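ingest -> validate -> predict -> emit
validate: passed (alphabet ok, no gaps, 150 aa)
predict: started
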Amino acid sequence: MNELKPFEDKLAGLLAALSPAGRRRLTVEIAKKLRQRQQQRIKSQKAPDGTPYAPRKSQPIRAKKGRIKREMFAKLRTNRYLKASGNDSAAVVEFTGKVQRIAKVHQYGLKDRASVHGQQIKYEARILLGLNVHEQSIINDVIIKHLKDG
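emit:
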């Protein structure tokens, strides 16, 4: 059994006692911290468990010469596409708009077309969003700080 279960039960009771506006402020703060953490992890090209992403496939020999100037998911991790929001019952970090499909293909390792008329390619699974022990401790710290200050 989890030795933190009594602590989590008391914490759940304290959170339930908060006003809806207080819970909303808390979830927005949690979502912002999680988005920051996810952006840092995507920049370091690592999955939530710490394993590195699968590298890009090498380009065909007859392809245009040069190097890829940007690391994977550089634009995807910006605040424009990776949104953080919260309401009185949930904190949400998600990709929005058209990039949501791209993120889903990479998150689950699905098939997609690189260009409109290109052939379908099976992408490697590169887990973009996820929680690990460190992020769970960040959430706990934010909750404790909020309850202490409030």
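The chain has four helices and four strands.
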